[in-house]
Amino acid sequence: MSRLHWTNWTLGIAVAGGLAAGILLTPAWIASGYISQIASSDAQTRAEAWTWLENPPPGGRSPRLVQWQLDIEQTLLQPEVQDAALMDAMEAMESHGRFGWSQTPPGLMVEVIEALERSGGDHMITATDLRASAPSGVLLPKTVRQATMSP
């Protein structure tokens, strides 16, 4: 075979591989953008991200949040995530049967409970119910972590 023939084959394989990688990696890249937005301090940004995550992909039946639940949970466990973002997550995940002691890591459950307690009002009832429903062996902090405020 001629050198030009091998070059064309190599170039064709590289282009096909690049296209395949792009097609396969694009959904993950798009999802990571929305997942990072669920931790935004802006309520509208969070709402748009949850809308995307709560809908199934084209041709799919399950909401995207099912496929990306582990990534969502890791994002929510970041120390800078605000209480409002945790409560939005609880609501969205719960509406799809993806929130609770059997579906959510204990660390995230504790963060959500503490966020609910800090919010007070009717959220305290939900926090109390979640604490009471904790499986035996799960150690829950007794006090609410104090929110830090800059002078």
Gyration radius, rounded: 21 Å
Please state the overall shape, judged from the principal axes of the Cα atoms. Answer: elongated
- Structural class designation: mainly alpha
Number of helices: 7
The largest sheet, given as strand count, sense and whether it forms a barrel, is: none
Tell how many strands the DSSP assignment holds.
0
Low-pLDDT stretches = 144-151
Share of residues in helices: 55-70%
What is the overall pLDDT average? 84
CA-CA gap between termini? 76 Å
SSE inventory with pairings:
Elements: H1 3-37, H2 43-54, H3 64-67, H4 69-76, H5 83-95, H6 106-119, H7 123-132
Helix pairs in contact: 1-2, 2-5, 5-6, 6-7
Overall description:
This protein has 151 residues and is an all-alpha fold. 64% of the residues lie in helices and 0% in strands. The protein is built from 7 helices and no strands. It has helices at 3-37, 43-54, 64-67, 69-76, 83-95, 106-119, 123-132. The radius of gyration is 21 Å and the shape is elongated. 21% of the residues are buried. Mean pLDDT is 84; it is low at 144-151.
Short description:
The protein is mostly helical and 151 residues long.
Core attributes:
151 residues, 64% helix, disordered C terminus, single chain, 7 helices
